[in-house]
Design brief:
single chain; 323 residues; mainly alpha; Rossmann fold; Tyrosyl-Transfer RNA Synthetase; three-stranded parallel sheet; two-stranded parallel ribbon; binds tryptophanyl-5'AMP
């Protein structure tokens, strides 16, 4: 059976990009695959962070993941930091990875350019992400397009490890949703919608619905008035078409509009139709944080049972003494 894995980082409030690019596609895979999903709280330590806020955001993200359909009774849902094998395998993989290939990662280049001091973990983060994936022998990794390079690096590291030390890991591949692999900022449709950028063009999953409608109605569109899908020439309109397509499951090619106004109105309606029930489900989960924590603890126990044998095999293959 296909083993699917994906993690989500609690480094800010989750956005519509996270929902359409990863959370919703991940939830849909529950029907056909054996799925492991996690809250990558260790990854949230790669930039300056506030401990109390990290705890809050980890629980918020877990609640939103469940509200988006990642049902913990049908998959393993766990906090990364509760499974020590992640940090341990990350070090082993760092010992097979090259400084140059880490420096070449686009996310490292972009994020390090915005900071005065760069945490070392920002550079080594792709080795931890590779550990996340390889520990569970995942074959498919549902992610947005921004994570494709990290999954490719994971493949490279898995193949290199297997060549050097013997066949321990399954090389994975990234899978992207058809329409919304890269949801763009509504106010600046040449930049990715991001939870770490404060922009009037970011839709947060917990935004009140009137704010969601306002942000979409004010979305930057392009010169001219024809509605056509052309991400290079018409990034604003193309972004709205992609969002509408992802929310309604109608392929972009079948969406036909003759005015920006109606496209915006239909997009706002479709996004709100998705967010309203999600926010209701989230509110009832958030009202009982103790139960949410218990669900995550149980998930961590199952994750440890899956991850530990892979870690042990990797250590053996590398010549480390058995405990
Ligand atoms: P993160 O937390 O930044 O994003 C979570 C998921 O949301 C996707 N995403 C988007 N998709 C479409 N449009 C957007 N604007 C958009 N913004 C974010 C991301 O591609 C991601 O799938 N390093 C990862 C988390 C991670 C991980 C892993 C993922 C850690 N270990 C192992 C897969 C496998 C990250 O920070 O995602």
């Amino acid at each position: 059976m296909t083993r699917v894995l994906s993690l989500f980082t609690p480094s800010g409030h989750p956005t519509l990009g996270n929902l359409l690019g990863a959370l919703r596609p991940s939830a849909r895979l529950l029907r056909t695959a054996d799925c492991v999903y996690g809250i990558s709280d260790l990854h949230a330590l790669t930039g300056g962070h506030d401990p109390a806020r990290l705890r809050e955001r980890s629980l918020e993200l877990a609640g939103l993941a469940i509200a988006a359909g990642i049902d913990p009774s049908r998959c393993v849902l766990f906090p990364q930091s509760n499974v020590p094998a992640h940090a341990e395998l990350s070090y082993l993989l760092e010992s097979t990875a090259h400084y140059g290939e880490m420096q070449r990662m686009i996310q490292f280049k972009e994020k390090s350019a915005r900071q005065d001091t760069v945490r070392l973990s920002l550079l080594t983060y792709p080795a931890l992400m590779a550990a996340d994936i390889l520990l569970y022998q995942a074959t498919e990794v549902p992610v947005g397009a921004d994570q494709a390079q990290h999954v490719e690096l994971t493949r490279d590291l898995a193949e290199r490890f297997n060549r050097l030390y013997g066949p321990v890991f399954t090389p994975p591949r990234a899978v992207h949703p058809p329409a919304a692999a890269r949801v763009m900022d509504l106010a600046d449709p040449t930049s990715k919608m991001s939870k770490s950028v404060d922009s009037p063009g970011t839709i947060l999953l917990l935004d009140p619905v009137d704010a969601v409608r306002r942000k979409i109605m004010r979305a930057v569109t392009d010169s001219g008035s024809s509605v056509s899908y052309d991400p290079e020439g018409k990034p604003g309109v193309s972004n709205l078409l992609a969002i509408l397509s992802a929310c309604t499951d109608v392929p972009v090619a079948e969406l036909s509009y003759d005015s920006y106004g109606t496209l915006k109105k239909d997009t706002a309606d479709a996004v709100i139709a998705l967010l309203e029930p999600l926010q209701r489900r989230y509110a009832s989960l958030a009202a009982d944080p103790a139960s949410l924590q218990a669900v995550l603890r149980a998930g961590a126990e199952r994750a440890r049972a899956l991850a530990d044998p892979t870690l042990a095999a990797a250590k053996r293959a590398m010549g480390l003494l058995a405990a």
